[in-house]
TrEMBL record, chains A, B:
Its EC number is 6.1.1.15. Residues 1-15 have a biased composition (Basic and acidic residues). InterPro entries: aa-tRNA-synt_IIb, aa-tRNA-synth_II, aa-tRNA-synth_II/BPL/LPL, Anticodon-bd, Anticodon-bd_dom_sf, Pro-tRNA-ligase_IIa, Pro-tRNA-ligase_IIa_arc-type, Pro-tRNA_ligase_II_C. It catalyses: tRNA(Pro) + L-proline + ATP = L-prolyl-tRNA(Pro) + AMP + diphosphate. PROSITE patterns: AA_TRNA_LIGASE_II. It comes from Heterodera schachtii. Transmembrane segments: none annotated. The keyword tRNA processing does not apply. This is proline--tRNA ligase.
Length: 537, 537
């Protein structure tokens, strides 16, 4: 970028700041107060306040008057739609069909599988009244749909020919959490997909568990530009009622916490025995219970995206889920500019957007508002996290180029107009790769092997997630958690909670022999694997 | 079709019937009882039983243990997905964005608009408990989201520049009806989309009301092959809180009842005044309340499709919403057929399906099960309503043709293999047009003008919907309804309910002068229009 251009930009940003000030004091003029553009805090100085501000100011979330419930605004919902489009197409390729089961579940069905209900019961919301009448029997709202669906599975499953059953639904679920709610991360109602399948053999079912896990990993790596560790959940952390749970776990650099990204469960025959889902096994020559899976990915993924990529300027959207990938902003429209030149600039900008959309499938818009300055627009779209801002001014036009400004890096790239569609598409791919790499590098630097329990808490305070030899037992995991709890935070903003296992990585550390001694020095059981421990969401 | 082929078919159907009989008595052999294929009743002899059987046996619906709630199986849900794909793309072209608001609403918000809440309150489900704790304040589940969304609209709407607001959500809603529930038509939970918009001017808002109404009409005419009458609802029938409601109304031939297909409401400033949704009007130079619309289309549309097109053989799917448009069934595989010929037949069938799918975008499948006869398959896919069955036998292969059998008409059309993709696509379009015409013709024959109240009930019993001069007043509509109620059904299976207005058709009868006297002879008010009266769902 030339000096001239830089000067113009600085000028425009200044004007924007002034405009904003005027808007903020607009009360006196009888108009409503405008929310201040931009964030008041940095991500590191007050992370929780930063998160609240980002999600509201970038227009992802609106607060709501029922505690633990939030409005998912179009800017956030479009991210979900991109995730849906990808995942829905992929599971359809696997032969999964969408359907819809009621959100209400009778107490009788809900309580059929004991381990399962024990875990969910404290958070179940109950409908007890309709209009002015009390219901004869209270009815639960699904916290998940195993108990909703499986009585029906028993009806559907008559013969080995009825298998596999593979269904999915995109829906809302309710878990009335009493902990402090956080938009996207811990909400009383959330959106997700839940897949439920039944197979004749354990082998087929297990294969699918990993097929789905790989799709979940791709949602993060290919769409959200977030690296994940694939693994199994420990006995303590697995889904209530599952034989085993697999998970993708992401890392949040700002505070070093892990966040579960999506889980794919092998339920074995636990539910099929309780719900009598049987078939005539050709192999065994007798009735056999089906082998089941369930798997879910929720709008929590959007929260992970915000936490991991957002910066002090606001939201940073990975290109593939950004509803607007490129915002074109005409610049350099001063009083000196002739009407003719101005019209040319606007027309050219408009044509660029059309070309990007129609010929290259790039999600582009033109911001041609004339009541705000280019600088104000820069701030606005940076706050909203649009991956590329494309500035086009008279001087650019003369040089047959446009200036691309990359949101995540601030990098400025002049692009010839001649081949703009292709170069924008390449740039979007590059941005995706860079965003991914940036997180991966920090994550890798903070994923350390540790063999000594005493070292764990200091490592957690250094925002590490920890690969430690582990026996896998519930008691041992509880001890480790208790041992790593802090009475007081080590530092402003760091968490005090103890470590739990995020997962047992499918890919175990290479070049390191698994020690025989569990990380818990009091444990006398044999280690099974390296588990990934961390503070967690 | 040749005699030979006919004979073969009859034979195969006979074998299928025998197989089925065997399956039905399978209990003795220790296997579970198989649901009887095919319907036990005809549509005219016991319509309500017919409906229950069709939706279950064609695998659209599974019954559920919470009253008024049903499982929407993949076969039905895919119809909904086709409707979603069309409608979602169309509203996005209009600039509407998807979002998600909580399903819980506080009593305070719910009760803000009095007319509105009066209508919905008796059916509202209340959550009063979570886990074992009673909630401090009961929380309602949305019956519709005006009162959920509009407090937020007030936050979003600061200036004329924030308008229009155009959002939509695809979600579940709950109306705890105490009348007899019917799958798709009257259910306590159902799926729909609800659009909510706010404009600076009444004109813009009104224009959108009709844009959406036209899209709803297209869902019926272009996707579901169902003719509709577009109109306005009467004062009595309009949405609680709306200035006016527009609707598309379909006609159900079997019983002559009208069914509301989707409604698009102009809310005027009724809600904006209650929820304080204001903006600084440039035109008026002062604060003004926004002009609002809301509009919804639900899974009830699937019920209309079933009732209107289904026949004594089962479901009949309109091609554009059929998840399987063509089922290819190899036939004529007898013991005499050489292995080589058999393999050739299967391979050719498989290749046909691939070609139809990949080259022509036709949703085709091959049914190559070898445990059931072709005749059984014919029955199966007819019951499920697949628009075209494509039979391919050794003799067809020799003649380089396949036999298309059209579900809705039973028509048999030999099609040369040479140009099969194109001819199938044409045939699907023809089927759509024919299905539409068939219903339209019956509907038109039963839409009659009537000027005498005494004639109304006999006309209703003849399955008519009635265009009658009407003053438009609520009292008058109530009188007409009371007058047309029957103490006893005129005939087995006909309804006893009185007539209500389905709508005031936008297109009024041509060539007929509107009389000055309302259809109600006691009414002294001036007629306003012809209204369409009928028994209704």
């Amino acid at each position: 970028m030339g000096k001239e251009q830089q000067k113009q930009q600085n000028k425009e940003k200044k004007v924007a700041a002034q405009q904003q000030q005027q808007q903020n004091t607009g009360d006196e003029a009888g108009t409503k107060k405008q929310t201040r553009l931009g964030l008041d805090v940095t991500k590191t100085e007050n992370y929780s306040e930063w998160y609240s501000q980002v999600i509201v100011k970038s227009e992802l979330i609106e607060y709501y008057d029922v505690s633990g419930c939030y409005v998912i605004r179009p800017w956030a919902y479009s991210v979900w739609e991109h995730i849906q489009a990808f995942f829905d197409a992929e599971i359809k390729k696997l032969g999964v069909k969408n359907c819809y089961f009621p959100m209400f579940v009778s107490a009788a069905a809900l309580e059929r599988e004991k381990t399962h209900v024990a875990d969910f019961a404290p958070e179940v919301a109950w409908v007890t009244k309709a209009g002015n009448s009390d219901l004869a029997v209270p009815i639960a709202i699904r916290p998940t749909s195993e108990t909703v669906m499986y009585p029906t599975f028993a009806k559907w499953c008559k013969s080995h020919r009825d298998l596999p059953i593979k269904i999915n639904q995109w829906c809302n679920v309710v878990r009335w959490e009493f902990k402090h709610p956080t938009p996207f991360l811990r909400t009383r109602e959330f959106l997700w997909q839940e897949g439920h399948t039944a197979y004749a053999t354990k082998e087929e079912a297990e294969e699918e568990v990993y097929d789905i896990l790989n799709l979940y990993a791709r949602v993060y790596t290919d769409l959200l530009a977030i690296p994940v560790v694939k693994g199994r959940k420990s006995e303590k952390e697995k889904f209530a009622g599952a034989d085993f749970t697999t998970t993708v776990e992401a890392y949040v650099p700002v505070n070093g916490r892990g966040i579960q990204g999506g889980t794919s469960h092998h339920l074995g025959q636990n539910f099929s025995k309780m719900f009598n889902i049987e078939f005539d096994s050709l192999v065994k020559g007798q009735a056999e219970f089906v082998h089941q899976n369930s798997w879910g990915l929720s709008t929590r993924s959007i929260g992970a995206m915000v936490m991991i990529h957002g910066d002090d300027t606001g939201l940073v959207l990975p290109p593939r889920v950004a509803d607007i990938q490129v915002v074109v902003i005409p610049v350099g429209i001063t009083v000196k500019l002739s009407d003719e030149k101005r019209v040319e600039l606007i027309e050219k900008s408009d044509a660029l957007v059309k070309m990007l959309k129609e010929e290259h499938g790039v999600r582009a818009v033109l911001d041609q508002r004339d009541n705000v300055s280019p600088g104000w627009k820069f701030n606005h779209w940076e706050l909203k996290g649009v991956p590329i801002r494309l500035e086009l001014g008279p001087k650019d036009l003369a040089k047959e180029q446009a200036l691309a400004v990359v949101r995540h890096s601030g990098q400025k790239v002049p692009l010839p107009l001649a081949n703009l569609g292709e170069s924008i598409k390449q740039l979007l791919d590059t941005i995706h790769a860079e965003m991914y790499k940036k997180v991966e590098q920090i994550r890798d630097e903070h994923m350390v092997i540790c063999l000594d329990l005493e070292e764990m808490t200091p490592l957690l305070d250094k925002k590490c997630v920890i690969l430690a030899p582990f026996c896998g037992r519930i008691e041992c995991e509880t001890s480790i958690k208790d041992f790593t709890v802090r009475e007081e935070p080590a530092d402003l903003g760091t968490a005090q909670m103890g470590a739990k296992t995020l997962c047992i990585p499918l890919e175990q550390p290479k070049d390191v022999q698994l020690p025989e001694q569990c990380i818990n020095p009091r444990c006398s059981h044999k280690t099974q694997f390296f588990a990934l421990f961390g503070r967690s969401y």
